[in-house]
Amino acid sequence: MTHMANRASIVLLSGGMDSATAAAIAKADRWKLHAIAIDYDQRARAELEAARRVAAFLGAESFRILTVDLRALGGSALTDDIDVPKDRADMGSGIPVTYVPARNTVLLSLALAAAETTGAEAIVIGVNALDYSGYPDCRPAFLEAFEQVAATGTKQGIEGRAPEILAPLVDMTKADIVTRGTELGVPFEHTLSCYDPVEEANAWLHCGRCDACRLRRKGFDEAGIEDPTPYVGD
Amino acid sequence: MTHMANRASIVLLSGGMDSATAAAIAKADRWKLHAIAIDYDQRARAELEAARRVAAFLGAESFRILTVDLRALGGSALTDDIDVPKDRADMGSGIPVTYVPARNTVLLSLALAAAETTGAEAIVIGVNALDYSGYPDCRPAFLEAFEQVAATGTKQGIEGRAPEILAPLVDMTKADIVTRGTELGVPFEHTLSCYDPVEEANAWLHCGRCDACRLRRKGFDEAGIEDPTPYVGD
User: B20 in a domain, yes or no?
Assistant: First the structure.
């Protein structure tokens, strides 16, 4: 892809390694980054701190936290009092309990509002369909449907300037993401993937056992790159 | 339309007469109503009180206010410090300053999350494309695009049970809405349309001059039905 230099994009940062890598790819592709992180009353509020660090590290033009109370709706181990599953044998099959209802639809709708307000021409999201196919809202068909929402439901869209949805990781494996992110200097040590992190000495440690930690570890293993993640018990 | 009795629906209530009428139509069509109202830091918080009254009056199974801070994004006279336009001559042409960026996308995404959590089979929204064509996210093309998002981006959708988007007012004039709502006993006197209401003696008066008030008045006029709205100066 070639772009005019430095057009504005809205980048959804979760604090995790995928969104950080997606943002770094957009930056390398000469997009200006306006970062937003969504606080949906997630238990892992450490993610918001990680998102802020990633935005600063990548030189984002702005960083804004938007709040939306998905917790009031319930329905997920990430926002409810359901236990985060550990060491589960069936990881990757079915829709996991950590799935947040309509999460990416909500995130993209807020990013779309931000894009419309700022005139941004793209929305960058770090979804990935390969390693974790249990999430329906990480698949290309969903992203294409959302692009139609942007094209039909906004002032920009009516004027033929609907923001593109950029999902540069959608077909990458976790190992690909680790490799590409490392090439681009993504500060993986500042990212947080864990669904159940532990605070220790003003830092957050990854549990190492939830689905997200195991995918993260596997990614570094398969990429043959040393894992800088601080895990519990290391 | 015929339906199995009493399937659950998520109803978006704004406190206004359109969403109240849409909800009443859904109820008449034997949908159970789970009402949600969205607090997007709108200046007219009186709308939330009106939404609660409407939900109670219509016998909704539940009423829940979800909060999302669209105001942080700016960009609309409904959420910003831009003046609400009064008595404007060009009402109905172009996209009004009161357009909230991506509002219906955000509202529907939260309703979709609620539908997924509760297993609701429909989302009811009171959008109307005829009288107020300046809002891009009130048109059938937008609603169809959002149905595709629901079909592709949710657990229900993957299982072939994506919620329908019901927009019973989409092709109605304001006068049609007044007439149908009156037939169904919608408590119009408890609804609030005004973008700039005035509190007086613990009640909210409509300003009578903003676009929303003028459309409302025109609707009652054209329907030949007495307008029960408390206006400033009446």
Answer: yes
